[in-house]
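Supplementary material to the annual report.
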Amino acid sequence: NAGVTQTPKFQVLKTGQSMTLQCAQDMNHEYMSWYRQDPGMGLRLIHYSVGAGITDQGEVPNGYNVSRSTTEDFPLRLLSAAPSQTSVYFCASSSTSWGTGELFFGEGSRLTVL
Amino acid sequence: AQKITQTQPGMFVQEKEAVTLDCTYDTSDPSYGLFWYKQPSSGEMIFLIYQGSYDQQNATEGRYSLNFQKARKSANLVISASQLGDSAMYFCAMRNTGGFKTIFGAGTRLFVKA
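Predicted assembly:
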C-alpha cells in the first residue's frame, strides 16, 4: 500500500532557486493539500484541492504555487526560495465522499533554504 | 474564519494515569468535523479520533476519547492509562464539511514519565 508518496524527503536550496515537491496518492482521494510544519506553529495549510483542475489557497500561500492536473498528483512549486521557507512540508489527502474525512499524510519533506 | 487553539505547549503525565489535552475551536459553519492526530518523534502523522458536529455522543477509540462540548466549542482529547509510547506531539484539527479544508492547532507535546 503506497498511500501518499512525497519526494524528495530532504532538499537543500540556495535563496532564489526553484524546486518542486512532488506528491502522489493512489487512494483515488478527491481532496489533496500541502502543509508546512514549523516549531510552535503546528501545521499550516498552504494550498489545497478538491479535485482535478480545482485549487485554492490556504493560510500561508505566498511564495508557493500548485496545480492539479490529475486526481493522483498535487505538486508544490517554490518559484524563488527564501530562507523563511525552510520547513518540513507534508502532503495529505482524504476522501470527500466517504468515511470521516481523516487525512492521510505523506512522510514529509524537509527543506532547507540557505 | 476557522481557528483551532491548543493552549498547552507541553504536558507531563505519569505512566498509567489519564491525561486531557485541550482544544478549542471557532467556526461559523454548522457542519464540521474535529480530529486528533499524533506525531511521534519519527515524524509521521497518525489519525487518532474523529467527532462530527452533529454526533450526539462523544467519540471513543480504544484508550482515546474526545470530550466534545459543542456550546463551549471545545474538543478535548482524553488518553486513559497513559503509556510510554504515548509520548508525542498531538494536534487538534477541524474540517468544515462544505469546503473540506482542514486546519490544525499549534499542538501539545506530551511527555509520559515512567
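The mean pLDDT of chain A is 94.
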